[in-house]
Amino acid sequence: MEYVRQTMGSAGLSGIIELPLALRNKRVEIIILPAESEVAERPKRKIKLGFLPGPPLPDSFFDPLPEEDLQAWGL
Would you kindly state where each structural domain of the chain is located, as residue ranges? Predict the structure, then answer.
């Protein structure tokens, strides 16, 4: 099992954990061990990409835009 072991001043831990009064302002030893995941792994879902079905587009949809619409878009 892999782990990390380090000694440091307790002031460096003040923003991470709350130390008991007896350990404050002293050198402390930190040991980090792996733990079981608290969150169960969710099975990966396959996602189908695509468009929602809808009514067919009329042929006029593909007609060129009127000149005033082109000007409004700056084209």
Answer: 1-35
